[in-house]
Structure formats: C-alpha cells, structure tokens
Amino acid sequence: MSNIILTLLIAFIGGIVFDFLHIPVPWLLGPMISGFLATNLLQWPLMWPNSVRNTGMITVGYTIGVSMTATALHEMGRQIPYMLIMTILLLLFCSGIAYLVSKVSDSDYQTALLASIPGGLSQVLILAEETKGINLGVVTITQVIRLMMIIITTPLLVMLPLFREPADGLIANEAVLPPEVVGSWGGLYPNIFLFAVISIVFAYLSIKIKLPTAYLIGPAIGTALLQATGIVGPILPPALINLAQLLIGTYVGLLLKPNDMPHKFKTFSIAIASGLLLVVGGVGLGALLTLLQPISKATGLLSLAPGGMDQMGIIAHAIHADLYIVSGYQLFRTFFIFFAVPPFVKWLFKRMEQRREKGYQER
C-alpha cells in the first residue's frame, strides 16, 4: 500500500508540473513520464494495480459512450467502408516496417511483425505467447515503446497550427461537445448512479465474452445503449476526466523497464525508429482520410494514430475533436486486429514455416 501511495504522489506531481507548463493532455503525459523516470532513474519501488488502471478505462469508456448519440452512430455506420480501407492500409504499412526491422536487426520477420502490429498491447502479447518461435521480450519492449511514443507525440502534433484549423463538416455535429460544455458535480445526479452500474456490468460482460479492451469497450457500449432509451448520460466534470487520465497514464509509464532489455541500445533504437515510422504513417493516413471525408485534420490524425482507443479518446475529448469518429475508427481497428489478424498471422507463419522446411529439403 505504501508503494501505491508513493506512486500516486509521483503521478500527481507529474500531472501538476505538466499542467503548469501547459503541455497537452497533462494528466495523461505527466503521470506517465514521472512514473517512468522514478522507476528507471531513481529505482523507486513504484506499484500500480491493474484494477486501478481499469477504473480509469471504465471512466473513459463511459465518456466515449456518452458521445454516441443516434446521429453519431448513424455517421459511424456510413464510415465503415473507409474504416476497413484505412485499417488495411495501416496494417500493410506496419508489415512494411516489420520487413525493414527484420533486415536491420537480429529479429526474424515473425517477431518484427507482431512487434509492429498497432493493436491492443495485451492482445498482441497474448498472440505472441501463443505463436511458436516468437521473441516475446522484443515484442513487449517494442510495443510498449510504440505506445509511449504515440501517447507523447500525438498530443504535441494535434496542438500544432497545421492541425488546429477551424472545424468544419462533421465536427459541427451535435455529437461533439463544444468547448463551453463542461460537466459539473451537481449535474451528475441522479443519472450517474444508473450509468455507473451499467458501465460496470457491461465491462464484466465484455470480459466474460472476451472482447478486446473490455474495460473500455463494455462501458462505451452499455452507455450508448442506455442513452438510446432516452436517458441522458451526464457529462463528467474535468476533475474526473483528469483522474481517469492519471490512472491510465501511470500504468503505461510503469510498463517500460529498459534495464530488462537485451542489447539495450540496439533494441531501443530500432523500437524508436519503428515507432516514429508508425507516427509518420498515421499522419499520412490521417491526411488521406481528411481528403476523403469532411473532417478536421486533428480528427483524421487521432482516428488513424496507431495508439489505443483509450488514449486517443482522451486526447480527442480534450481538444474537442469528433470523439465518435475517432472512437469509431479506433474501435473498428481494435476489433479487426483482434478477430481477423490472429488467424491470418498464424496462417502466414505456418506457410512461411512450410516454405522454409521445403527449402531445407531441396538443399
């Protein structure tokens, strides 16, 4: 318990400092960076239970669900063809990165491919564990570094003048919360109790049926369904949103432990390089999406950024981007990677193994 309290204090200080410096999404980035530094530089015994992180995930899931009005869901339905095209293009880009990584490192292509897939961290690691011949350490390190780089660079990118153009098209939709709409503590009651129960129940059900990122997707679905009955979900106060960011950011910051890396410098360098390429790919695909759809550049970037639905949802909410568009694209990619990628990857690796064995036999 003392370690958890110390971790909370370090995370809070990080959030305060980043907020004072006016760094984007301070309560996500501050705790993440401060936790990472305290663990790896100061060697402090920090600890952050999964249950605490999951509480933050449920809160973010609720926020996403509240944004999914009937109009928003209709618009998401229209976006499905573009979601599929963009997801496939992103995965092809990641496959190319994996090929380059396998050529300049000691990793085989299978390991490099799983390390480059922009899916949920837990899902990719499970797939890596179940696949024969995969270097789990390399996959874990590269995925964590990628995740941290996306979380750090994306908020900084969307704050650039290039991505802060006047909103048009879909961003004027009623599903988007304008800057002046701020939740209050008094406005939470009494509906928040019902929505809290629904969010927890749907998170539990999502775990039972093994949905990806269950603590995020479950509450989002439950909240959206309850709103469809006419019951309006209250907007959360900024303090609760900041707390959710802190709970998630602290967890991510403690994931990366450079001291456990094999060939630290080379592994770290390759992971950073592949992470930067993924950022560039996300920016390019986001720009392409803005040419195909009437959305802002910030929304396009957040929709295609190879991060997680929770982090991109937090950033979209913070800058008042099209939260339902961002969540829709991130959710679609999560499901696509979870259901379509594993069987394809296993089939691909099996074919590669058969060709390799055939080559040995011919020799």
TrEMBL record:
GO CC annotations, alphabetized: membrane
GO BP term, example: regulation of gene expression
Transmembrane segments: 5-23, 80-101, 144-163, 188-207, 214-233, 268-292, 331-349
UniProt-listed Pfam families: AbrB
Highest taxon in the source lineage: Bacteria
Record-linked InterPro entries: AbrB_dup (IPR017516), AbrB_fam (IPR007820)
Keywords attached to this entry: Membrane, Transmembrane, Transmembrane helix
Protein name: AbrB family transcriptional regulator
Protein species of origin: Lederbergia galactosidilytica
The organism's taxonomic lineage, starting at the top: Bacteria, Bacillati, Bacillota, Bacilli, Bacillales
